[in-house]
Design goal:
Elements: H1 31-39, E1 45-51, E2 63-70, H2 73-86, E3 90-92, E4 99-101, E5 106-113, E6 118-121, E7 124-128, H3 133-142, E8 145-146, H4 158-163, E9 167-168, E10 171-172, E11 177-184, E12 192-197, E13 216-224, E14 226-227, H5 230-247, E15 254-257, E16 262-263, H6 269-274, E17 284-285, H7 287-293, E18 300-301, E19 304-306, E20 313-316, H8 322-340, E21 349-351, H9 355-358
Parallel strand pairs: 2-5, 3-5, 4-21
Antiparallel strand pairs: 1-2, 6-7, 7-13, 8-14, 9-10, 11-12, 11-13, 15-20, 16-17, 18-19, 19-20
The structure holds flavin-adenine dinucleotide (FAD).
Flavin-adenine dinucleotide binds at residues 57, 91-99, 113, 129, 154-157, 159-161, 163-164, 166-168, 210, 217-218, 248, 254-256, 349.
């Protein structure tokens, strides 16, 4: 599909006359060598041993060996190629609002693509992954484009919103996605830009195909919106935002809901029957209901607390560690499992943990 940006938001072929896009050699191994190679590139912010606590809303997380940030998709692809060829581990982050990073940090390279253009052509909107979801919501609301207004106040980037199919108040971003352009770094042939239609993205509640393919990095997306009245859309968005700000004060160091909710249709019928109908919202049973029954509200471990008004909201009240956070998460999963035999599943994503360590 033709891009609505003046220049397509895609990885450009290297132009030999332009040093800013000169391709870098991709042979390196070890952090120092990768650092040396990446240091030759223009347009890349490169940091060594950077505390990821500075990049997460929890304010938790030890250092990444290397941190690479660029607004240029071509540069990003080159950096990723270098990292992949080196054999170092890599992780791509957005705004860090849905991450639990280990206290020990991340042994490898943390990358962030900050390209953030948003453009519209009639009801069609194209957004680059580094734009914040709020910028996208505001952009559409101002232009009288209906369909994202209920997602106001969800923090983080547009790229991660697609990755996790973010949503609120009965709607999720999947409803608006026409197609998604992404960088496929899983092939031996090198990085390739690919595009998926909505159905190919396999969206589901807080799920997409990108969650199961970490080597696919979302670059941009095209959304189909509907015409609407800007004043009405703004009123809806403002009402939702003020409710959300009471529930999640902007300064709160948290990830929103830690656990996914349950789809009523997927709960065993005897269990679904136990849940009061007043607790069921838009076909979902909030995990908070189960958590409340097992005494989650107000739990505290070190600096980590469970909100006393919302059992699925865990925050860093000050000086919290990933160790305490994971310990509370695991304890809550265990309590719910022991009582009902159902597995709570984290909405939040882990960085820097071996899978077994998370469950220790
Ligand atoms: C106060 C608060 C309220 C929240 N409320 C909601 C809500 O109502 N509804 C909701 O759905 N979520 C909610 N969230 C969760 C969070 O905002 C979303 O998950 C958001 O989409 C994460 O965006 P991010 O840029 O911060 O991603 P990060 O936390 O940086 O990353 C999340 C995941 O996305 C991956 N990722 C990031 N960028 C890309 C990319 N370009 N390509 C591929 N993968 C990528 C990362 O590898 C990681 O696995 C809330 C969070 C907070 C703190």
């Amino acid at each position: 599909m033709k891009s609505v940006f003046e220049e397509p938001a895609q990885v450009r072929p290297p132009n030999p006359d332009e040093s800013a896009v000169r391709p870098l050699p991709v042979t390196a191994s070890g952090v120092s060598e990768v650092l040396e190679l990446l240091a030759q590139a223009d347009g890349i912010t490169l940091l060594r041993n950077v505390p990821l606590s500075h990049y997460t809303r929890f304010g938790i997380g030890g250092p990444a060996d290397l941190y690479v940030e660029t607004p240029d998709p071509a540069r990003f692809a080159e950096a990723l190629a270098i990292v992949r060829a080196s054999g170092l581990d890599s992780v791509v982050i957005g705004g860090g609002t849905n991450l639990i990073v280990a206290d020990e940090g991340f042994r490898g390279v943390c990358l962030k693509l900050t390209s953030n253009r948003i453009a519209a052509d009639g009801c069609r909107v194209e957004v680059e992954c580094g734009a914040s979801l709020q910028e996208l919501v505001d952009f559409t609301v101002q232009r009288g484009l209906k369909g994202l207004e209920t997602m106001t106040g969800i923090p983080g980037s547009a790229g991660a919103a697609i990755y996790g199919n973010a949503g609120a108040y009965g709607h999720s971003i999947q409803e608006r996605i026409r197609n998604v352009r992404f960088l496929d770094s899983s092939s031996d042939a090198g990085e390739a830009v690919r595009e998926f239609t909505n159905s190919e993205c396999r969206f589901h509640y807080r799920e997409s195909i990108f969650k199961r393919n970490k080597a696919w990095i979302i670059l941009s997306a095209v959304l189909d919106m509907e015409p609407g009245d800007p004043d009405q859309l703004r009123e809806t968005a403002d009402r939702i935002l003020s409710t959300r700000n009471r529930k999640y004060p902007p300064s709160m160091r948290c990830a929103g809901s830690i656990f996914k909710n349950f789809l009523l249709s997927e709960l065993p019928p005897h269990l679904a029957a136990e849940v009061p109908s007043t607790a069921i919202i838009e076909g979902k049973v909030p995990s908070a209901w189960f958590l409340e029954q097992v005494g989650a509200k107000g739990m505290k471990r070190g600096g980590i607390e469970v909100a006393d008004y919302h059992a699925n909201l865990i925050y860093n009240g000050g000086g919290g560690t990933a160790r305490d956070l994971v310990s509370i998460v695991n304890e809550l999963k265990e309590r719910v499992w022991q009582r009902w035999g159902i597995p709570l599943e984290e909405e939040v994503q882990y960085v820097g943990f071996a899978r077994s360590a998370r469950h220790a």
